[in-house]
């Protein structure tokens, strides 16, 4: 981790240090300054996105520090302190910050609970995540300090402090269900993600919703939830749009699951809210499995989804909810760090928690709004009760809607499939073995993907049912048999809106001699070359789609068309001649990996500073079941106390002249401290050394000669004062200003330096640059030991 920036260090230099002992820690010294200043600074604001009054334990919130124009700040510090605490102990700081942008923010080295700037530069806003502490932690004060041209200290109240208390979790508990019997529901998904409503970077070609996967289940099973980590099944839905792994996870939950909910993918994604063709599915609930959850991928996207999590259909009146309607906004699965619809894959390591997308996530996000407004919903889900079965015990009497819904009750289909057998979905029904009105049969099949208990046999993988050829009916003798439709004719218009038709013929007339009333011709409108201007080109209709590139799972398919006539004005044809989209084939034959639990994390790879640590798990499933693609090792960063930094000193100066002209004296030399020791490094040694010196013995009468010498030096000093005004003799060609006064010594003890300057006052035309320039003198000072 980087060292604190210059702004953070300058802040600490202004803090008092009157308290000693254990409480005199780095964090507490920061906080102690808050009692010294009570100024109001409304140009800076610390807020939590959504402005909540309370926090949900374990939930993650976005914390923003902003400056109103034209203000800015160069440095900052943010902490989360328990209300009423002094800040002397680690327990006084609750919750955990998470860095969003390492170029903007970092944890403070000597105060790990605090967040500060990474680079000292102008900021108008920064943001970090804060995860609330566990239940029972009480109220928290989120506080910020600002470093601009001056220091704005922490406040107990005002715009740089946000107070939040724990949310009362008794408001909406997930209680045991008291309803009787069972209920049957239909869930319908209406996509509302369109270019008109969400225009920024909308992916015109590949927009779609993946196949929907979910379940009705007990409250002890969680498919996904905000603040939780995505399972492997959720990750595959979020990143690939594949529900295969998710369905396996659901079916392995046994009695915790009553119904698996599945709906087909939607291509394209947009669906008006009143379209009947919106995908839907039916499911059942009972007293122990009264929760409903599902999810679907917003495609293309890094790992964005929508869905419901733990929707309780059991009412507190011991009945079954009649209808649930909910608008959906996308959420991030925490497995990919992309910020746009079609960002390249960028795995998030380590994996982050599931969270809702917001309009302030990233400026390149398609949902970005600098004002921080709410995201417009991208879908709506309607869950409607269609039947009840068994004796009911609801406290509130049935209304008309309840009675009408129960008229069409349907028996629950029996499924004798053992829970230890995991199958793929049934394939579509094959064509009937009879092409006439004679009875035939058709077949569908499924694949056994895993047999978790070899002692329990898995039933059939093929299913048959009786059928007849196209256009036939076993019960109606007046039915005529028709051929398949012939391919559509070319569009009647080569530019704009036209029409096309297709035909079929009667293969066998009704046995009773009646006229066949089924249509043998169909006509529909078609559009070719929407633009008919001189700058547009004429193209053919799209050809048929190629075969899917994959034989199982997710693949791609393509189709093409040709340019019939280029633009008449000579410009380049801009029409698309190639179209590519995803295609989903039957699930691939995969065997779930059987793995040991993760081992404990290893020791950090370093003894101080930044390093890495690892953990492993082993594959326990038999090799003959196939390769396992699950990761067997994980690596993450670790941080130990900073490495010691030893004192760094300059080289020794030359020995000075002896301080006596005769007899015994001494001479000295000095050196300076270039870098103070940090984090327990070796301390600095001496900065001054003395040694004896002896020039010669002093002769008799030396005192008189010394007096003469002293008088001579005084005369020379007086002469030098008069020569300071004009030093042209030392600097031919220019007039110099007098020497400045010596500067203050850089250190109070241990050897410092002083300097003085002589600058050029006037340069004559005959002056040479090398002989006429500013001068600087440096000398040692305060060389006595500290």
Automatic annotation (TrEMBL):
What Pfam families does the entry give?
Reeler, Spond_N, TSP1_spondin, TSP_1
Record's keyword terms, sorted:
Cell adhesion, Disulfide bond, Extracellular matrix, Glycoprotein, Metal-binding, Repeat, Secreted, Signal
All residue ranges annotated as the Spondin domain in the record: 173-366
- Supply the CDD domains for this chain: Reeler (cd08544)
Chief subcellular site?
secreted
Q: Which GO terms describe its biological process?
A: cell adhesion
Q: Which GO terms describe its molecular function?
A: metal ion binding
User: Which region ranges are annotated with the description Disordered?
Assistant: 1-23, 703-733
| Family matches, as SUPFAM superfamilies | TSP-1 type 1 repeat (SSF82895)
Which Gene3D superfamilies does its entry note? Answer: F-spondin domain, Reeler domain, Thrombospondin type-1 (TSP1) repeat
List all Polar residues biased stretches: 1-11
Reelin domain: residues covered? 12-177
Q: Where in the cell is it found?
A: Secreted, Extracellular space, Extracellular matrix
Q: Name one GO cellular component term.
A: extracellular matrix
Compositional bias per record (Basic and acidic residues), positions renumbered to this chain: 705-716, 723-733
**InterPro entries to which the protein is assigned, alphabetical:** Reeler_dom, Reeler_sf, Spondin/Thrombospondin_T1, Spondin_N, Spondin_N_sf, TSP1_rpt, TSP1_rpt_sf, TSP1_spondin_dom
> What is the name attached to this protein's record?
Spondin-1
Provenance organism: Sparus aurata (Gilthead sea bream)
Q: What is the lineage of its organism?
A: Eukaryota, Metazoa, Chordata, Craniata, Vertebrata
């Amino acid at each position: 981790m980087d060292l604190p920036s210059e702004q953070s260090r300058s802040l600490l230099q202004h803090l008092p240090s009157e308290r000693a002992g254990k409480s005199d820690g780095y964090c507490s010294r920061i906080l102690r300054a808050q009692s010294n200043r009570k100024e109001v600074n409304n140009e800076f604001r610390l807020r939590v996105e959504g402005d909540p009054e309370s926090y949900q334990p374990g939930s993650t919130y976005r914390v923003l520090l902003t400056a109103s124009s034209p203000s800015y700040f160069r440095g900052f510090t943010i902490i989360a302190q328990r209300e009423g605490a002094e800040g002397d102990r680690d327990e006084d700081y609750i919750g955990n910050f998470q860095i969003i942008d390492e170029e903007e923010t970092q944890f403070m080295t000597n105060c790990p609970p605090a967040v500060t700037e990474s680079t000292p530069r102008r900021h108008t806003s920064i943001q970090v995540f804060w995860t609330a502490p566990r239940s029972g932690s009480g109220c928290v004060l989120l506080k910020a300090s600002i470093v601009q041209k001056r220091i704005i200290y922490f406040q107990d109240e005002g715009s740089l402090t946000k107070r939040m208390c724990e949310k009362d979790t008794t408001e909406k508990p997930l209680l045991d269900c008291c309803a009787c019997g069972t209920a049957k529901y239909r869930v319908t998904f209406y996509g509302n993600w369109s270019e008109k409503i969400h225009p920024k970077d909308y992916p015109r070609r590949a927009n779609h919703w993946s196949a929907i996967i979910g379940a009705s289940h007990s409250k002890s099973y969680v498919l996904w939830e905000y603040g939780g980590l995505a399972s492997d099944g959720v990750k595959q839905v979020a990143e690939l749009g594949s529900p295969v792994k998710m369905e396996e996870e659901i079916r392995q939950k046994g009695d915790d699951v009553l119904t698996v909910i599945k709906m087909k993918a939607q291509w394209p994604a947009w669906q008006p809210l009143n379209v009947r063709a919106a995908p839907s599915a039916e499911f059942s609930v009972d007293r122990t499995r009264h929760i409903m959850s599902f999810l679907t991928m917003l495609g293309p996207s890094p790992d964005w989804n929508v869905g419901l999590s733990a929707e309780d259909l059991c009412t507190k009146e011991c009945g079954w909810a009649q209808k649930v309607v909910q608008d959906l906004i996308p959420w991030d699965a925490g497995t990919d760090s992309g910020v746009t619809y079609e960002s390249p894959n960028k795995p998030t390591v380590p994996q982050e928690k599931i969270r809702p997308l917001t309009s302030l996530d990233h400026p390149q996000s398609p949902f970005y709004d600098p004002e921080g407004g709410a995201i417009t919903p991208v879908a709506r889900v309607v869950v409607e009760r269609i039947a009840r079965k068994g004796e009911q015990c609801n406290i509130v009497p049935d209304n008309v809607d309840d009675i009408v819904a129960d008229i069409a009750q349907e028996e629950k289909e029996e499924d004798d499939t053992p829970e230890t057998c995991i199958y793929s979905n049934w394939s579509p029904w094959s064509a009937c073995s009879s092409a006439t009105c004679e009875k035939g049969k058709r077949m569908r099949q499924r694949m056994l993907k895993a047999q978790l208990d070899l002692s329990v046999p898995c039933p059939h993988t093929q299913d048959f049912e009786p059928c007849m050829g196209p256009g036939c009916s076993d019960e109606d003798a007046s039915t005529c048999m028709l051929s398949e439709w012939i391919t559509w004719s070319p569009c009647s218009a080569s530019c704009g809106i036209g029409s096309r038709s297709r035909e079929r013929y009667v293969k066998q007339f009704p046995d009773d001699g009646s006229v066949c009333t089924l249509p043998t011709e169909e006509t529909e409108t078609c559009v070719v070359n929407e633009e008919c201007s001189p700058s547009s080109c004429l193209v053919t209709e799209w050809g048929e789609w190629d075969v899917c590139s994959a034989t199982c799972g997710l693949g791609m398919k393509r189709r093409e068309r040709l340019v019939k006539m280029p633009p008449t004005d000579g410009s380049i044809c801009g029409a698309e001649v190639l179209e590519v989209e995803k295609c989903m084939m039957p699930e691939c034959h995969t065997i779930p990996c059987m793995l040991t639990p993760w081992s404990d994390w290893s020791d950090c790879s370093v003894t101080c500073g930044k390093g890495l640590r690892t953990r492993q798990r082993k594959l326990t499933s038999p090799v003959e079941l196939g390769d396992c693609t699950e990761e067997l090792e994980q690596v993450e960063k670790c941080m130990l106390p900073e490495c010691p930094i030893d004192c760094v000193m300059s080289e020794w100066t030359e020995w000075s002249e002896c301080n006596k002209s005769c007899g015994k004296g001494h001479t000295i030399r000095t050196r300076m401290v270039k870098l103070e020791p940090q984090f327990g490094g070796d301390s600095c040694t001496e900065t001054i050394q003395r040694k004896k010196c002896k020039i010669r013995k002093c002769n008799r009468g030396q005192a008189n000669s010394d007096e003469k010498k002293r008088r001579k030096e005084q005369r020379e000093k007086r002469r030098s004062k008069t020569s300071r005004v004009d030093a042209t003799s030392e600097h031919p060609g220019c007039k110099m200003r007098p020497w400045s006064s010596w500067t203050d010594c850089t250190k109070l003890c241990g050897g410092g330096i002083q300097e003085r300057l002589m600058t050029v006052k006037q340069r004559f035309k005959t002056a040479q640059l090398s002989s006429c320039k500013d001068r600087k003198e440096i000398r040692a000072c305060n060389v006595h030991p500290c």
